[in-house]
Amino acid sequence: MKLDRRAFVKLIAGGVGGTLLSPLPWKMADDTAIWSQNWFWRPSPERGGATTVNTVCQLCSGGCGVRVRLIKEKRAVNIDGNPTHPVNQGGICPLGAAGLQYLYGPSRIETPLQQTGKRGDLETMKAISWDEALEILAIKLRGMRPKARGLVCVSGKREGTVPELFARFLHAYGSPNYNVMPAAADAESLGLFVSQGNSGALGYDLENAKMVISFGSSYIEGWGSPNRMMMAFGDWRSNPKRDRTKIVQVETRGSLSASKADEWVAVAPGTESALALGLAQVIVSEGRYDRTFVSKYTHGFDEFRRLLRRNYTPDKVAAITGVEKEKIIGLAREFAGTKPAVALSGWGQGRMPGSIYDFLAVQSLNALVGSLHKPGGVTRMPRVPLAPWPKVVLDAKSLAGENEPRLDGSNGPQFPLPAQLFHNLVKNVNEGNLYPAEMLWVYEANPAHDLADVQPFLEALDKIGTLVSFSSFMDDTTQLADLVLPGPTYLERLEDAPIPPGLQYAVFGLSQPILSPRFETRHPGDVLIQLAKSLGGNVGASFPWSDYETALKERVKGLADAGRGQVADEPGLQPWKGGQGRQLAPNYDSFDDLWEKLIEHACWFDTSEAMPSWESAFTTPSRKFEFYSQKMRQVGIRGNDLTYLPHFKPVEPAGDPRDYPLLLMPYETMAITNGPVANPPFMTKTLFDFQLKGNDSFVEVNPKTAADMGLKEGDRVALQTERGTLKVRVHLTGAARPDVVFIPTGLGHTAFDSYIKGKGVNANEILVAQQEPVTGLAIWWGTRVKISKV
Amino acid sequence: MDSALIPEGVKRCSFRSFCLWLLAILGVLGWGVLGGFLVLWKGLNQTGLDDSFGFGLYITADLAIIALGAGAFFTGFLTYIIGKKELKDVINLAVVVGFICYTGAQVVLLLEIGQPIRGWFSFWHANVHSMLTEVIFCITCYTIVLTVEYIPLILENRQLEKVPEFRYFSHNLHEIMVVFAATGTFLSFFHQGSLGGLYGVMFARPFAFRAGFFIWPWTFFLFIASAIASGPALTILVCKMVQGASRKQLVRREAISLLAKVSGYLLTFYLIFKFLDTWWWATHTAPKMGMSFAEFFQGPYGLWLLVAELGLCGVLPAIILLIPKAREDDVLLIVACVLNCTGVVINRFVFTVQNLALPVLPFEKLQIYVPTWQEWAPTVGMLAYGALLVSLSYRYLPMFPRERELNPID
Amino acid sequence: MSGNKSSKVRYGMVIDLDKCTGCMACSVACQQENSVPFREDETNKRRSITWMEIYQLDNGKPYPEHRQAYLPRLCLHCDSSPFPPCTFVCPVNATHRDEETGLVNHIPVRCIGCRYCISACSYHARYFNWWDPKWPKPMEEMLTPSVSTRMRGVVEKCTMCVHRLQLAKDRAYVEGRRELEEGEYVPACVESCPAKAMIFGNLLDSHSEVAKLAKSRHAFRLLEKLGTEPKVYYLSSQDWIRKLADNVL
Ligand SMILES: Nc1nc2c(c(=O)[nH]1)N[C@H]1C(S)=C(S)[C@@H](COP(=O)(O)OP(=O)(O)OC[C@H]3O[C@@H](n4cnc5c(=O)[nH]c(N)nc54)[C@H](O)[C@@H]3O)O[C@H]1N2
Ligand SMILES: Nc1nc2c(c(=O)[nH]1)N[C@H]1C(S)=C(S)[C@@H](COP(=O)(O)OP(=O)(O)OC[C@H]3O[C@@H](n4cnc5c(=O)[nH]c(N)nc54)[C@H](O)[C@@H]3O)O[C@H]1N2
Ligand code: SF4
Ligand code: SF4
Ligand code: SF4
Ligand code: SF4
Ligand code: SF4
Ligand SMILES: [Mo]
Q1: In this complex, how many residue pairs, one in chain A and one in chain C, have their CB atoms less than 8 Å apart?
Q2: Angle at which helices B131-155 and B88-112 pack, to 10 degrees?
Q3: 8-state DSSP, C195
Q4: Chain centre distance of CA C216
Q5: CB contact under 8 A, B175 and A4
Q6: Which residues pair with A483 in a beta bridge?
Q7: Fold topology of A50-107+490-516+565-607
Q8: Which CATH class is domain A129-183+390-487+522-555?
Q9: Do A736 and A705 form a contact (C-beta atoms < 8 A)?
Q10: Looking at the predicted complex, does its ipTM rise above 0.95?
């Protein structure tokens, strides 16, 4: 064969051409394109028509309306805010937006479980049927009936028909020990009780306020109804400059709420209410208070004035708070001179009860400037006119229960006020006081993680006979349970969402099963009804309904009967405009119609309950707002004049300053949940690497303090308090006050799944809760701490 | 044992020693293959790359090696087009080194992209505006050219040559080598320039970006100049290495001297323009973007890099190579060539890594990049691959046409 | 603004940093809307995918003058002429700007993962899939059919929820309309924002809210000096925040 130049060129051309003309390279190229675009392990979600259903979010007490997008009416693929819901107007918080990660989360509990081995051992948790589970519980309860008072229930949800059913069950069964998790609402309701005579809660007309002073409330970081607060903030910031609502944040830490305020007043730790009293002193001494209101509708003003003059002059308050005298005077004048202006109370997101005196100091400031029960001020939270259930049927056992002392000591000789003192309950159990706790029910709460100063609670568990959890998730508490009765999540169940904290108008939300329950879960309401029926007797008779839905409807009939309010069915509703007491023409014509519309729109709201008239506003002995509380004396609280007046006497943080030179303060942020459920992966993803790095969480330290201690950014340190030690890393920031270190709460779960468990540390393990002597409320705003490099 | 394959009339080390040497090379190569395999199998999470450092060691190595591979086209250009006949002594070596550089770069490029199986999309869905498209097209074409240039040398192996078809084929290729040399030169000018453009056009990256005239033609020609200044230096180094290993003179001194001289002049030419570029960049381009020259040098990526690149590895070797007496001194020559090559590596490194490490948003911080062993291994493996190919080519192919003449066997 | 002069539509956004509460809802809403993958450990921020990433800014002053603010950063859909920094460099046309709308899109199934675009974007708006995305078993259920999941080895970024534009257009088409009205197409992040800090719309429609706000004296863009012409504007009345938007000598 001879290969000349032409043959050579031909050979090359032929070879190339031939290959290209054959299907081989094209087919292969095509195939690689297809393979590389459709790896079989890449999830390819099922397609289908999309529908949207309205419901309400129950991940916190915020009460927001949400819309859930469903594919083929069975697969939820998105949650966003419902624009027709007045509370959040289409906005949503990160927790609400991540809701599907709970519905489809890997730590869901699929069936009832019974612990057959040692508590906390997940291996020996045995799946059982609902019949078995209810039978086990019923047998125990029947056996326990003679010691009925030993049944304790703690609910994380404070309001609503399901917590009411729990309380009702205990009442009928014969136990006085229905409890809720501690929160700012505790101090608030006691404070209202002693100063205004009625317990309950406050509604702030923030949308109409021109000046807001927040005494430590994280007003855009989860306080109140988080979305409502952020929306109001956005609104305040939308107004043209001269009409803008002025925001002042009084807080020790340079939080986001502090940074975003027009003014941040950096007070010494724990002295917010001293500043409030300082402002009050200036307002009173300069005669800038609302004379009409004070003279006509308050009691004890002279005593209050004397106390202010004696203890809270600008000089004295400057010494306590570290805020310059001129600033105190200036702020006082501005607050008194701006109408309407309102002061907020409740530290952080409102998870800590706080001192009743802190509450009284701030609310007295509101009273002085005449912001009580006025537009743009603070009023009583309106009531939703739900119909009452028939009275609980009582037998001898339950009547006996009514007279038993509460295990938390409230309403008793030591703490005469009608408080919720779960920490004290824990203490009494640990010390063997009163009587034993035979059984603990935990509903919508995760005390084994969320309770500040959690160690005593974990110890108390050893002394509690049976722990029953109603949780949907294998959370820190549930994994310690003896019996688990898993409920459906909020997207799978019917339940009312009560009016959210701080709201000034009435709303009633309805969450509904937008898809069928994914597992063998049962609604806690239904569980209670079934349990009551199987116990029979007066307990059974107290639960006359066939199921929870019937029970709920019975109460909702009250709305239709009242003929008030409207179903929120159009975007842009602004109930706070046009004032309280505005009558709304009902847009439903019967209960059935109302129910149908509630199912469709998930929200009823009403503005017709006017601000209370001065005649009815105060049910104190003086029928006035009491600066000097006669109510306190009436219930049997002993003390000197100071006891009955708003004053500043901080509960000292635990720990000897010589051993623990620094102060440790917990803080909350929107990106870390503290509530019912642990941080979902979507939210954890948004944490900065100076908040969480690997499994390490951080404390905020002032650069100066750090320099004094030889600490650098990212250093690992041990935080030691009287209660214990946690290992964290250091983040240097000018937001931290010198000599105070700040730790976020909400991390450090010991349960759930690999996306949650073990991330960061749980601050509650080393915070030490103190007790306020008068009320018995637990307080843990600060704990003394020692830091050492590890 | 393999004497039948060894070219006639030359002496090679024993087969045993050669095998031991190969074993050492294969060991390193194996490590490289393992690293590469892990990256292909498990993905780029095996590397130290991240969203701050989209580019890292792989691209630095690719760019450096492509620059250094310029010895091939440039020697070809000087030999065939300019007619510097003395360079025929090293042209084969230059081709082999170029082939190594370009094929090595292609393999590493394949590791570097997240979807190697889609690599061909750059031909199919080509974006003509992208410098990377230009680079990929040109280096692929040029790799083909280098292959074609390498083939006749392979076919000159003693056994292969016995096949008449191969002989004709190789002979014919030789005849048209000028065409390939021209094509290679053309392609290389393009892609060396485009590599400069690759960075220079990133107008949101103040460190790399050059505006107006300073991008085209300036940066393009800077990259070409730095490549053709350093490529011959690598050719000299490899040549010296083979000579050292074989303890023989394989090329005439004139060839080496010419390469060294050319490299020296080009390096000087390059440096003049590089200094102008740096000056304009520091005083005009950067300030327009709100950046000061000093801000460009932070942390570990300090000013020392610039001093090293342009002073120690720029001006110094240029001086040595320009002074005939100095470049005739073997030690100084080697030092100069090593510095010259290092300079171009630093240049490619700063454009790749320092460029991305620097914060552009004012509220960001400097980032640090640390490559993992899975990145080092294929990079070092590429060197082993080079050593392998040079060793085999030297042993079995008449790589140095003058070898017999310079080392007569008695 | 540059880009295609003949188009009447340039979608863009204004983010009011004075209103933004740093709540992260937009970031989470985006993750849910666009099936953004997540891993057990997301604390290596240089490998964590968040199309909507939120930066913490501070004024650098000591306590108690210290102030912080948050800056949400999505893809800014740069309008530089003739190309945005990122699409200019893509060798395979896997990303390009739609000149009808000004949206910079990205086609993951064409992307070869060369990361040239990541290197070219100084806003860090682009993310690489360092791993194959995996959802813990039941969570695959919540993946939306509107957006495909991506695979290992490709880049992804904010698309301005372009699937929502498509849906809105389809709806309008069914109703016999050629043009969309303001508010018919709104990205998920904008919709989620509880503080209503984000406004979205057509920057070329002088009646739109977004166009008006973009002309506010408090409006600015990130790194304007680079000439990238972002279509995402920010608002702030705070000098220290505005100063952090661009490099100054
Ligand atoms: N990002 C994020 N957001 C969260 C959470 C989270 O973990 N992460 N947690 C959520 C949870 S669990 C909670 S409890 C909240 C905490 O925030 P809140 O729900 O506000 O907490 P509360 O303890 O109810 O009370 C806080 C303040 O709200 C008012 N308030 C409380 N209860 C009532 C009431 O019944 N009526 C009236 N009118 N006012 C009341 C009082 O002024 C009190 O000082 O934050 C929720 N938001
Ligand atoms: N240190 C510290 N302590 C605190 C607080 C704080 O901020 N810091 N906050 C206080 C406040 S405000 C609160 S509300 C409490 C919260 O107290 P927690 O102990 O947090 O109680 P929750 O977290 O509200 O309850 C959540 C439990 O309900 C379960 N769950 C969630 N969804 C469902 C469902 O659909 N069905 C059923 N059956 N169970 C469900 C979850 O698994 C979880 O175990 O903590 C209080 N204690
Ligand atoms: S604020 Fe609370 S209720 Fe509202 S969306 Fe967020 S978690 Fe749900
Ligand atoms: S922000 Fe980055 S990714 Fe987005 S268009 Fe601009 S350059 Fe491209
Ligand atoms: S990573 Fe993908 S989109 Fe980016 S430049 Fe490369 S191919 Fe184009
Ligand atoms: S526009 Fe859509 S894709 Fe972009 S950040 Fe917002 S939600 Fe994510
Ligand atoms: S949702 Fe709105 S307020 Fe929250 S971080 Fe995003 S832009 Fe800011
Ligand atoms: Mo809560």
Answers
A1: 218
A2: 130
A3: T
A4: 21
A5: no
A6: A114, A468
A7: N-terminal domain of TfIIb (2.20.25)
A8: alpha beta
A9: yes
A10: no
Backbone angles phi, psi at A174, to 5 degrees: 115, 25
- Cross-chain residue pair C112–B43, CB shorter than 8 Å: no
Alpha carbon of A619 to those of A109, A193, A273, B160, C59: distances in Å?
Answer: 47, 9, 25, 112, 50
User: What is the rounded distance in angstroms from the CA atom of residue B316 to the CA atom of residue A559?
Assistant: 91
Among A14-18, A420-424, A636-640, the range scoring the smallest mean pLDDT is A14-18
Residue A1 with chain B: CB contacts under 8 Å: 164-165
Q: Say how many Å lie between the first and final Cα of chain C, rounded.
A: 25
What is the homologous superfamily of the domain A203-378+615-644 according to CATH?
Dimethylsulfoxide Reductase, domain 2 (3.40.228.10)
Gap between the Cα atoms of A250 and A356, Å rounded: 18
- Pairwise CA distance, residues B245 & B24, whole Å: 15
Could you tell me which residues are beta bridge partners of residue A744?
A667
Report which residue type is found at A564: R
Q: What is the pTM of this model?
A: 0.91
pLDDT tens across A343-382, in order? 999 999 999 989 999 999 999 999 999 999 999 999 999 9
Indicate the residue of C130, C154, C248 with minimum beta-carbon distance to B290.
C248
Question: How far does the CA of residue C222 sit from the closest CA of chain A (Å)?
Answer: 21
Note the pLDDT tens digit of each residue in B17-74.
999 999 999 999 999 999 999 999 999 999 999 999 999 999 999 999 999 999 999 9
Q: Which of A423, A470, A461 is nearest to A120 (CA)?
A: A461
Q: What 8-state DSSP symbol labels residue C139?
A: G
Q: Domain extents for chain A? A: 5-36, 50-107+490-516+565-607, 129-183+390-487+522-555, 203-378+615-644, 662-789
| Cα A149–chain centre separation | 28
Report the relative pairing of strands A495-497 and A506-511 from DSSP bridges. antiparallel
Whether C177 is covered by a domain: the verdict is: no
Which regions of chain B are under pLDDT 70?
410
Chain A residues whose CB is inside 8 A of the B124 CB are 29
Structure tokens given for A47: 């397609």
Domain coverage including residue C43: 11-160+186-245
A783: Cα within 13 Å, side-chain hemisphere: 27
- Hey, which of C1, C104, C117 would you mutate to test ligand 4's pocket, going by the most ligand atoms within 8 Å of its Cβ? C104
Residue of A4, A5, A690 to mutate, interface with B, max B Cβ within 10 Å: A5
Q: Closest ligand to C158 CA?
A: 6
Q: Which residue in this structure is represented by tokens 């690719």?
A: B62
C127–B contact, CB cutoff 8 A: yes
Q: Which ligand is nearest to the CA of A423?
A: 2
Q: Kindly state the tokens that stand for A315.
A: 């000089």
User: pLDDT tens digits, residue range A760-790?
Assistant: 999 999 999 999 999 999 999 999 999 999 9
CATH code, domain with C130: 3.30.70.20
B165 → chain A, closest CA residue: A3
Which residue(s) pair with B298 in the sheet? B301
Query: Which of C199, C163, C168 lies closest to C181 in space, CA to CA?
Result: C168
Which amino acid makes up residue A510? L
C178 belongs to a structural domain? no
Span between the terminal Cα atoms of chain B, in Å: 21
Helix (H, G, I), strand (E, B) or coil at A419: coil
> Kindly report the CA angle at A102 between A112 and A758, in degrees rounded to 5?
90
pLDDT digits (tens, 9 = 90+) for A311-340: 999 999 999 999 999 999 999 999 999 999
Cβ–Cβ contacts within 10 Å for residue A234, how many? Answer: 22
* SS (HEC) of A523-553: CHHHHHHHHHHHHCHHHHHHCCCCCHHHHHH
Split into its structural domains, chain C has a count of 1
The token pair at C204 is 């070329």
Looking at 2.40.40.20, 3.10.450.50, 3.30.70.100, 2.60.120.10, the CATH number of the domain A662-789 comes to 2.40.40.20
Q: Is residue C169 assigned to a domain?
A: no
